[in-house]
Structure formats: structure tokens, C-alpha cells
Amino acid sequence: MAVGGVGTSLLLMAGIMVTVGLCRRLTRRRLRSHQRLCTFLLEMFSTFQICACTNELSLLGNVEPKPHTALTLTYGFTILHGLTLTGSTCNPCGTLQAMWGSGISVKMSGLKITAQFVAAVLARAFMHFIWSLEMAEPHFGALSQGCSNPMQTTEVQAFCIELLFSVVFQLTILRVESVNPKYRVHLIALLITMLVYAGGNLTGAIFNPALAFSLHANCFYDKFLSYSLVYWIAPSLGTVLVAFIWDEILPRIS
Fold first, then answer.
1. Distances (CA, A) of 153 to 159, 215, 217
2. Tens digits of per-residue pLDDT, 92-146?
3. For 15-30, what is the mean pLDDT?
4. What DSSP designation does 65 have?
5. What phi and psi values does residue 39 have, to the nearest 5 degrees?
6. Could you tell me the pLDDT band of residue 208, with boundaries at 50, 70 and 90?
7. Rounded to whole angstroms, how far apart are CA atoms 186 and 64?
């Protein structure tokens, strides 16, 4: 893949991040008194950024040298997301974790999860429109791929992998809450990069139901039960297990 094509993709993702940043700032200024609408839009814009950028990054997986380039981009953009999207979870599992541990109401959690899935659909539609313009080499033929079949193992193994990765990720999030934010974002980015390296070739290592739907909507249409179990139920179950262990078991043995 030509360097120019990669550069265009990077500029596109940078433009998305700048635009989302402006939208978030405007939302905070103009809608501060409307708490629910403000919360919904902030979560939607934030999740849109992650889904849109990850959709674009998925086209750069074969850039040489492999897998170093893809992993470097994953690490770098995870840091940028962490620095620019403070206050948003962008992950239904993270919202469930907050509801269990922090006392966020069910209604507010439902509002955030709805915003996340709305953003996932909007990000997919937006990226498909951008790809249809074929502005860069990575976009050529991107719309004709259909289901990319991210599951390269059995459904049982894929379920266990996404469950395990969700447990590891959510436990780490809880563990590093007290770490200085400028260091915490690097720790989380490093963990995500390691998980992608370990399981990306088997399930995609997504552990985010909204992001999974944005990336692989065609696969959900074709095999809804299999993909909902692996990419929705497994990470959600992992989050519930972490919340139970963290709040109910660890306090009793510590």
C-alpha cells in the first residue's frame, strides 16, 4: 500500500477527531442545562470518533511492515482517544461497569448505551460514504468486502476469548483508576495493543459491543446469534463477573 494512501487515512482520522472535539465543546457550552441531552450527545460524539477511526484503521491492517504498523497505529490512536474523550466510556460494557460500581441510574445507563449504538450506526454509514468516494488507496473495494469474518476460530473459543479479554480490560480499568491520568492513558493503550496482538487474528479482540456492531454489521445480519453471543453477550458477561468479583468477593478477602 502506498504511503500516500496511509497519509490520507491518517488525515481523515485527524479530521474526525478535530470535528468531534469541536462538537463536544459546543455541546458542553450550549446544552449544559439540559443534562440528559448533553450526556446523550457527548457519549454519541465520543463513540462516533472511536467507531469511525477504528473502521478506517481496519483498512490499514495489511500495511507493511506487518503487524508492526497496525499495532503502532492502534497504540497511538488509543492514546489520542483517551486524551480527547475524557468523561465518556464509549463502550456499553464500561457503562454497565459504572452502573454497578458507581451507582449510575439504570435510566442514565440506558441513555448512554443507546447513544453508543446510535453512534456505531452513524459512524458506519459515514465511513461507507467516505469509502464510496475512493479518495485513497485503502478505500478501493472496501464496500464490496461484505462480512470480513473476524472469527477465525470456533464459536466457543471466540466466546471465551472475548469474555477473557473483557475481564482483563475491565479489571485493569478499575485497577488504574488511582493512577495519574497522563500515565493511565498509556497503560490502557498498551493493554489494548497487547490484547489486539494476542487475539486480533482470532476474534479481532474488540470487547466492545457497539464497536463490534459498527465494524461487522454485515456479519451480524448474516449470523446474528453467533455474533451477538461472541461480541455482545461475552464481553457483557465478563463485565458483570468483574463487577461482582471487585465489589463482592475482593472486599471480603482483603
1. 10, 18, 19
2. 999 998 888 766 889 999 999 999 999 999 999 999 999 999 888 888 888 877 7
3. 97
4. S
5. -60, -45
6. very high
7. 24
